[in-house]
Amino acid sequence: MSPLEIFSAVFGLFALAMVFGSLFTWSLGLRRLWQGGEFLPLERRTPVGWGVDGVIVSLGLVVLLANAASFIAQRGGWLELPEDPQKTPISLSDMSTLLTLEGGSRVLACGLVILWLVALYRSSALDLGFALRWSHLTAGLVGVVALLPPIYLLQALLTLWWVEYEHPVLELLQESGDPIYLLPMAMVAVVVAPLTEEFLFRVVLQGWLESKGMKDASPAGDSSGHVGMDAGASTYDGGAPSGEGLAGDGERSTAPDRTVPYWPILVSSLFFALAHLGHGPAPVTLFFLALGLGYLYRQTHSIWPSLMVHFCLNAITMIVAAVSMMLGEGL
Predict the structure, then answer these.
(1) Taking a C-beta distance cutoff of 8 angstroms, is the pair 200, 58 a contact?
(2) Are 299 and 262 in contact (CB under 8 A)?
(3) Which residues cross the membrane (predicted)?
(4) Residue 69, exposed/middle/buried by CB under 10 A (0-12, 13-18, 19+)?
(5) Per-residue pLDDT tens for 156-195?
(6) Separation of alpha carbons 83 and 136, rounded Å
(7) Residue 198: which residues within 8 A CB-CB, separation 6 or more?
(8) pLDDT (tens digit, 9 = 90+) per residue, 61-89?
(9) Taking a C-beta distance cutoff of 8 angstroms, is the pair 46, 40 a contact?
């Protein structure tokens, strides 16, 4: 057997196992919903401190630092961008440089946002989605198994019946066949992109929207904006009280599950999809993926479950593209 045939066989078995695992996971989840429960338990949280200013500052820093890095690189002669990308495609080396700059600027922007939120709002690790428990890893594993097979199936159907999938990075890699650019591009695609996008879209944007909905649903007379447990509030399966994080918040009240809205999932998913325009049918696929990622964040108030799913999605895509490129054949 050729290396391509071996990889195809192994990958086929992996895909088959994922499909059966997804069907099993969805059957268990739908059974829980039928019995009046939830697919995943809802964990305790408090409304985050930041408002729309956190979203604006985060977006502004990402755009500002990315443009600044690109401008400095072009002025220094390290990056040359074509005046008309439609007529003169960007070279692979310049694309690699551009992606590295964008990845680095995103990480720096997210780091500055975290420092700003901690300094100004005394945001804790729980507020920022970085508090980690075993239940979060379990939720992430459930998300990987449940979401990836239907997402890949939807992508295949859209590519077959609607429009071909487009991704400039993968296309350049396939055309060049040069593996030297794989490592930096894989680092950006598999590590930097999931981490920064999950922080910006789930933690900052969806976290603010959820908190806004929770505060709007606060019982009359609660001027603090925090929502407390009432006599009719349900208990939390697997939820743990919030503790001290990056900055201590003292005594923090917690919210009953009925006050955590679902609509922020839809809003954050829409913006996540719009951020990926220009990649063929990807915005449609990513919108449905983001619905799942947003649900994971709503239930856990943690970045780790959605990050696991996002990481695995991009990692599988990059592995398939890399093998196809190195073997010089399509899969």
Answers:
(1) yes
(2) no
(3) 6-29, 50-73, 103-121, 141-163, 183-205, 270-297, 303-327
(4) buried
(5) 898 888 766 666 666 666 665 566 667 777 888 889 999 9
(6) 46
(7) 293, 303, 306, 307, 310
(8) 998 998 898 888 888 888 887 776 666 66
(9) no
